[in-house]
Write the structure tokens for this entry.
Amino acid sequence: MTRTRRPGLPWLPMARLVGRRVLFAVPVLFCVTFGVFAIAAASPFDPVKAYAGTAGLTASQENLDQLRANLGADDPFTVRWWDWLTSAVTGDLGDSSSLRQPVAEVIAERIGWSTLLCAVAFTLAVLGGTVLGVLAARRRGGLFDRAITFVCYTLEAAPPFWLGLLAVWLFALKLDALPAGGLTDTASEVATAGQVTHHLILPAAVLAVSQLPWFVLYVRQGVGDAMDEDPVRGARARGLSERTVLFGHALRSGLLPVLTLVGSRVPELITGALLIETVFSWPGIASATVEAATSVDFPLLAALTVLATVAVLAGNLLSDLLYGLADPRVGFDG
Amino acid sequence: MTARTIRTLTAATTAGVLAVGAAACSTPDNGKSGGPRDAAVVGIAYEPDTLSPLLGYGKDGNSKIFDGLLTHDAKMRLKPALAARLPQVSGDGLTYTYTLRDGVRFSDGEPFDADDVVFTYRTILDKKTNNASKTELDAIKSVEKKGDKTVVFRLKYPYAPFAERTVLPIAPEHVASKQDVNTGSLTTKPIGTGPYVLSSWSKGEKLVFRANPTYWGGVPKVKKFTMAIIKDDDVRATRLRSGDLDGAILPPNLAATFKSDDDLRTLTARTYDYRTVTLPSDNPVAGDRAVRRALDVAVDRKAMVDGILDGAGKEAYGPVPTDSEWFTKGTERRHDLAAAQRILDEAGWKPGKGGVRAKNGKRASFTLWYLSGDKLRQDHALAYASDAKKAGIEIKVQSGTWEVIEPRMKRDAVLAGGGSPADPDFDQYTLLNSALAGDGFNNMAFYDNPDVDKALAEGRRSGDKAKRKAAYDTIQRELVDDPGYTFLTHIDHLYVLADRWQSLTTQVEPHDHGLASGPWWNVEKWRPKK
């Protein structure tokens, strides 16, 4: 039994970094939730009208005023924010007025589906982006490189909802190959793995495609630059196979900037998911966010914003940790 | 070199091909032929916000999951449901006594009794309950039980159509009283006495119902009933064509594309669903009686029905449709541009610059709002403005959300919609009563006519049908002389569905046609074709 001696992970500096970031997150969340309440209060949408829906069009003014009082929609947003914050700290996230459910229940029902969608799409984007990026970097300025770069810049400019609608039109309406939306077939009500997979393909693919260009271009740049560096030229000079050079040498150093990208793409992934879930009626967190925003559903909106903020901060933390691990020169001082 | 290029291309295309290939393999077989006889999937455009009757779900009946004390038949006549017979009404019209049906149980096995009825009505009327429709029960002074099988409603004032309000679904007291009425689980996991139980609700996607095996009215033949929520008309039509849906509500132009399909049939529902233009009394032009009367005859309603609705509708002269028993014959207005010009001339609105009339230096011009994104209202608004222009009245058409429109309703005209078929009081009282001027979205025209107010009061108080008819005749005739609105059209609702069931019918439908309307209003009574 042979044991290779590897230096242990730098647990202590990593823990310190995590601790610092958690402390930093507190004022950030404080400000973000305050901002959300302020913006929602300034928006032209009226929570009472959103709550009443079509019934509001025949309701008496007295009825509407009573609703306004019950929903607490009259209080200034600072009061509502403070009430929300103090009860959220004790674990009570309040009740969603738009979905008529406790906020915790809404999140519990939906977060799994959102995580599934985002995880699949992100994995596809990272893997696909790496593969395509390496292939493009192999022969920079070649036909494949130019084609892929062109496609990437085009996709970067295309908004995800537009891509989504295009995909629905092509795959669901014209080719009738994939379902246009939802989690399962209309006639079926149990979410079997097969059906969910079938319904996941289109939204996940579109979300992945909308994220793909950044990874392709980063990897292409990183690997391309690494190809010109001394170690790679040295390896080539020693007659190592192209594959070893590409994946063993160039890719390893070329991937470093991609690690940063993983963190910084999380916000984009969340906004992308917001649009994709709405287009494909995917029953996730993001589609609830849209609903919460348009009906000025303060408790739900605030909870979901906190969730998104935490995801972004965690993404950044993760990429910093990975970067520190991959490149010891960087350290964990951030 | 060539080998490498090939390898590169292969690798590059793999990713793309994989996705499409995987999709093609797993495409389900969407055959249109047949489909199970005991299941139906239909596409609707609106999703309920809640499934709790306490918050307004199913208030006009046909809630599938719940029953009211009464219900409507295909001809919109009241018949008993959870009540054993129609209510006894006291001579002064102030007391309604309901005797309840025996042996009814909720889907969880608990028996239904008078406590559930009393609880339901009291909870809805409670200030803390966030029910936006509670105004409809305004007449109730008290609701009490007399023994387990009798419920007595006492009213604040005689209200002839009160029985129509008691189609409202009854919630289970033993479940609902133990939870928060506004956010409790009853809003998403309802328990009722109705023909169906909710099997699952995937918000924004679909509602699945299963037949209630112990339904007191007999177990439905359609065992599983799915309502897919599909907001986009084109997507709904495509999914109907692909066989994913058995039926759907469609706009006339899309319904027409299914005419040649032998497996599908189209049902046209008559409605009370009107489109009207509010002419606010405070606007110096739109509030002028001559302008109102001129617009009423200048507008070409027939052209709107043919052009905008593809013939699927009727000309409207008031909230009551022309084929209703409550309609006053002889109040139809002919399209007569010359008459409109004469009315304006006589009232001193003289032709002015740019073809726009003016009176005492005031131009005959006002703004008309419609709800942005509503194609139907937009078409009506533009057609109306173009008809008005011919008579020399300038109407500036603008779109906005209700948030934008509401603060302007006192001065500007709005293209509004509405319609409740159950009783003539429901629409007319809120549209025309001067006491409700500017109250929420009621009486948006700030219409104020003492004769109409008097007739409205008489119409709702009198228990005698002939007297009521006379009152509503008065109102409809007053609307000819002094119109506060220009009523344009009543819109038919079209449904296309698979020809697998016997003798499907539709009720007369309201403006707000969500889950309760359509040929599936009585899905529990559907019988498969042999």
Remarks:
- Residues 2-25 of chain B form the longest helix (24 residues).
- DSSP finds 14 helices and 21 strands in chain B.
